[in-house]
């Protein structure tokens, strides 16, 4: 229970530091996202309703938009669906076509993309890299480490 309390306190601090109103719904949604992974609106709604049964789809959209605007959460489009993840270090989002899951691949130097864009006179706010591929070999290597 103490860990749960610490997580809530961390999330409350995070919301306040970003000048966002602290509500049970926002705590629930951010707690889900902080645990990692990529979530669609439907997944967030289903998971959030396990904790806050009365939470509405409108609240989910409004909250996610506030989180994205504050820079806490990143969203990206893939196959006509919007996905949300907690904002973290630059990485590549890979759609594993063999399993259908989206994985993060860290340690890939993508800073050169931003540098090339700057050279062209483009200053970007966010860089989201999405790749598609067969991930079986990568996932097997990750499991064996």
Summary of the model, kept short:
The protein is 48% helix and 19% strand. It has 145 residues and is an alpha+beta fold. It folds into two domains: 2-86, Winged helix-like DNA-binding domain superfamily/Winged helix DNA-binding domain (Arc Repressor Mutant, subunit A, Orthogonal Bundle); 92-144, Dna Ligase, domain 1 (2-Layer Sandwich), CATH 3.30.1490.
Characterise the protein shown here.
This protein starts with a helix and ends with a helix. The longest helix is centred in the N-terminal third of the chain and has 16 residues, at 2-17. With 145 residues, the protein is of the alpha+beta class. A hairpin with a 2-residue loop joins strand 2 and strand 3. Helix 2 crosses helix 3. It has a three-stranded antiparallel β-sheet with strand order 1-3-2. It has a three-stranded mixed β-sheet with strand order 5-4-6, with no helix packed on it. It folds into two domains: 2-86, Winged helix-like DNA-binding domain superfamily/Winged helix DNA-binding domain (Arc Repressor Mutant, subunit A, Orthogonal Bundle), CATH 1.10.10.10; 92-144, 2-Layer Sandwich (Dna Ligase, domain 1). It has six helices and six strands. The chain is 48% helix and 19% strand. It has helices spanning 2-17, 24-34, 41-51, 57-70, 111-119, 136-144; strands at 39-40, 73-78, 81-86, 92-96, 102-105, 129-133. The model has no long low-confidence stretch (mean pLDDT 90).
């Amino acid at each position: 229970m103490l860990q749960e309390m610490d997580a809530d306190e961390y999330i409350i601090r995070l919301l306040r530091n970003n000048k966002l109103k602290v509500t049970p719904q926002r705590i629930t949604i951010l707690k889900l996202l902080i645990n990692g992974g990529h979530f669609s609106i439907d997944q967030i709604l289903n998971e959030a309703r396990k904790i806050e049964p009365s939470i509405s789809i409108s609240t989910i959209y409004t909250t996610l938009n506030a989180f994205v605007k504050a820079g806490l959460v990143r969203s990206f489009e893939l196959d006509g669906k919007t996905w949300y993840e907690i904002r973290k270090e630059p990485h590549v989002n890979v759609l594993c076509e063999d399993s259908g899951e989206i994985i993060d691949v860290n340690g890939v130097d993508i800073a050169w993309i931003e540098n090339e864009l700057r050279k062209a006179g483009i200053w970007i706010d966010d860089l989201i890299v999405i790749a598609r591929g067969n991930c079986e070999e990568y996932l097997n290597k990750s499991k064996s480490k």
